[in-house]
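One chain shown below:
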Amino acid sequence: MSETLSADVVILGGGHVGMTLAIGLAREGVASIVVDSSDPATQTAQGFDGRASAISTASWNLYTHLGMAGELAEKGCPIASIAVTDAMKPGRIDFTPDPGDGSLGRMFANRDLRLVMYGVAAREDLITFLPNAHVATRERGDHGVSVTLTDGRRLTGRLLVGAEGRQSPTRDEAGFTPARWSYHHRAIIAGLTHERPHDNVAWEIFYPAGPFALLPLLDDAEGRHRSALVWTVAEHDAAGVLALPDAAFTAEVARRMGDIFGPIALATARSSYVLNFHHTAKVVQQRLVLVGDAAHGMHPIAGQGLNLGLRDVAALIEVLTDGMRLGLDPGDAQVLNRYERWRALDGFMVSGATDVLTRLFGVPGRLPSAVRRLGMAGVQRSPTLKRFFMNEARGMSGKLPALLQA
């Protein structure tokens, strides 16, 4: 007879968002089963994923409350300032917090985030992690949910969470209809070393073909200064950029970034991924909730994708645990509707803002560039506007779940 496993919540997807949700629920005494199709050993292998993520102040507060910050602290590079420029022309914006406000966030290699996340989850008795597992069927009823894996194991619970990312089969099977489109762009990812220190400044350089971001990382073991590159190129140019010899590639990178870091060199292999947009207005159904990229996938222009997913996590933990303390089922419709009302506006605003920025800075020509730089100069001269944008970047605006507060 096939094995049956039971928990309060069944989470499909064990990435940054899904596993962080499981850790948060476990800290509140809520048991979960996490199903993930990937292999943790592969996910954490050196060189598997050269990407880095900006963790906002609010997300760092979440990691602190969940007991992850202690192990992560020495692995992240603080972001002291963000420089925004239109093609390196005069009129840039410098976002620098006031003394005492802390950094604008921290940059982490995705591998380091995964290593700590898996380690913390492994110490939680209320988390059952099933890696290398594939879902055959999903069922939801009035009194619970059931998932059958391809190996015959059956999982039961009271709430199903879709956290598989942009290609979420749970979302698609349930019939959600997200607004979606392609930017016809691809993000080229690489690690760089450079002669001069970055001084903990993140650079967002906008070109009509797409944004060009340089994100600060900690110096390597040899003391070399490092940054992560996210270079957006047109889809039809991506294969050519990826195929460039290293010297030609770094020459193209140097041409776009000017001389801010001095001579540069590649520190990692290059990789890429397609850029598209999707947003689901509704994120709940009967005993089902979507979190993270399953609900909203956006352009990485402002580094908000993961942070928006972690805000989903903090809000869902709060509404589930509040409801359960009142004796409500975690799959109760009023509990899930509270989550949807809480997250709908934030998800829409952040997704929409990144899309508008992408299109605004993608308009070519001297006149659009001059208008953009005029607007940027206005923001640069306005402490109120700068504080507003910095609070948005730090994730510290609006009604925050308790886990996102210091």
